[in-house]
Amino acid sequence: xxxxxxxxxxxxxxxxxxxxxxxxxxxxxxxxxxxxxxxxxxxxxxxxxxxxxxxxxxxxxxxxxxxxxxxxxxxxxxxxxxxxxxxxxxxxxxxxxxxxxxxxxxxxxxxxxxxxxxxxxxxxxxxxxxxxxxxxxxxxxxxxxxxxxxxxxxxxxxxxxxxxxxxxxxxxxxxxxxxxxxxxxxxxxxxxxxxxxxxxxxxxxxxxxxxxxxxxxxxxxxxxxxxxxxxxxxxxxxxxxxxxxxxxxxxxxxxxxxxxxxxxxxxxxxxxxxxxxxxxxxxxxxxxxxxxxxxxxxxxxxxx
Length: 304
Hints:
Helices cover about 40% and strands about 25% of the residues. It has about 300 residues and is of the alpha/beta class. The protein has three domains: about 5-90, Orthogonal Bundle (Arc Repressor Mutant, subunit A), CATH 1.10.10; about 95-170 and about 275-300, D-Maltodextrin-Binding Protein, domain 2, CATH 3.40.190; about 170-270, 3-Layer(aba) Sandwich (D-Maltodextrin-Binding Protein, domain 2), CATH 3.40.190.10. The strands form three sheets. Strands 3, 4, 5, 6, 7, 10, 11, 12 and 13 form a nine-stranded mixed beta sheet that branches. Strands 1-2 form a two-stranded antiparallel ribbon. Strands 8-9 form a two-stranded parallel ribbon. The longest helix has 28 residues, at about 60-90. Residues about 300-304 have low confidence and may be disordered.
């Protein structure tokens, strides 16, 4: 059914006094054309829509019923066009984002707020997972984009499947028990930790573990592992219990854990790079818009 015929029918049928000549002027078409189109529409519908025996013409019961449905259909059609155009521009839809617990406590929310401000109709769904799970879910297209530390991405063999963008840098800090003698210092050299028991990251986050080990080795020693932990909160609890000391990203200060102190690293100022990762060749316009927001926000130093 020709939507132009529907629009012309609705224009004519909605007039206070139905007048083919006046409707033709409004539509800017010759009256004979309008008359022919209405007749074709009636043939297609299979019912007379106008009672032409009266002056002015009146809608038949069929015409009244058809007017209501046709008007609603045109409204729905306009909405469908707007929705399709919005989807094509990435203004509506879903965005599945993978994060880990450390990123959720960093400046990552700033990116989400900036994106929400520009694209309020996109539904954002966050999935808190470890780096290995994010990579798997990106491969299976269950995630649109993930946020990892660069060392996590570099520990996998299939980096060629993804594109990545550094979105932030974050300083590392030494976390000590509050009663530790080194807590009196405002900054600590890595070499000062050579005799300390360490709470190291578990093998589930092997990339970060190796980064800490390399940092210690550059200072001339191999860290003595007293305990290992996967989650930041677990590491902080162990330090508070004086199990050992640890090195973590500076955003952990936001957790306000009692029994620990946070100290800057003197001399070498190691940083962690946080990257956004997505599958190569993704055609999601929503994802492209999100990446554009990331680029516009620029590199953020999350260090203290």
